[in-house]
Amino acid sequence: MLPxxxxxxYSDFPLPEGHRYPLQxxxxxxxxxxxxxxxxxxxxxxxxxxxxxxxIHDQDYVNALVTGTxxxxxxxxxxxxWSEVLLTRSLTSLGGTLLxxxxxxxxxxxxxxxxxxxxxxxxxxxxxxxFNDLILAADHALSHEGIDKVLIIDCDVHHGDGTAVLxxxxxxxxxxxxxxxxxxxxxxxxxxxDLPLPIGTDTEQYLLHxxxxxxxAIAQHQPDMVIYDAGVDIHRDDELGYLNVCQEGIAKRDRxxxxxxxxxxxxxxxxxxxxxxxxxxxxxxxxxxxxxxxxDTYYPNWSPLP
Length: 306
Ligand SMILES: [Zn+2]
Hints:
binds zinc ion; Arginase, Chain A
């Protein structure tokens, strides 16, 4: 059974009518997995304790978010109205990415049905990201015996700016970001490896450039663990991405990452990352490619549950 990490709160926090954030996609994806009877074992995370955030985040920033006293202008940069439930949801999803790491270390691979808050920096959040789960998860992985190097592979269409900066001070965390060169955020600090792609890059071009960079990043950093952000906002119909990749391209990308890590026996903790459509149901088959890729790669004889 493929370990997946999920909590109902992922799709249940207050947002104003018409907000961009695809709140329902997490629930819809979980329902799809259940309806298809895919063989998964669900693990439910608990809130990460506030004090764990101090490892990578500024104490004043954390306290302001916890107490709801972050100035409005800084909340606007994050893009959510503050609420107690928002905070609980954020801390629960951080706990979820760490739980995904634990399951990946135990079973080789695990998927988190949210996560990928790569725009969260040391002392500010932005782009729907309060705290950086990818760096916290890498830090957590490094506390395990035998894990001395973690590679974060960020395939979300947006550059992983917060992740890049936070990893710069820790030589045990390497970062690889493949993204659209003319998209949010405008300032893109250096990852260890960056692959900026022009607006309109199609499936063939995407894979042509991505696959050798994937091999390069792994050969260069020889990670003991990979954290994979499988954002589907590279899809041609995405409302916040400007690439032109089809669903089959997303499937090939996910399968290339998982196959490479599987064959090298590098455990993978994957998060589903970004994906933005007004019709949130249309995101489900795109994110589901990651689950199918994981099942086919790690459980090649799998079949749907009776
Ligand atoms: Zn994104």
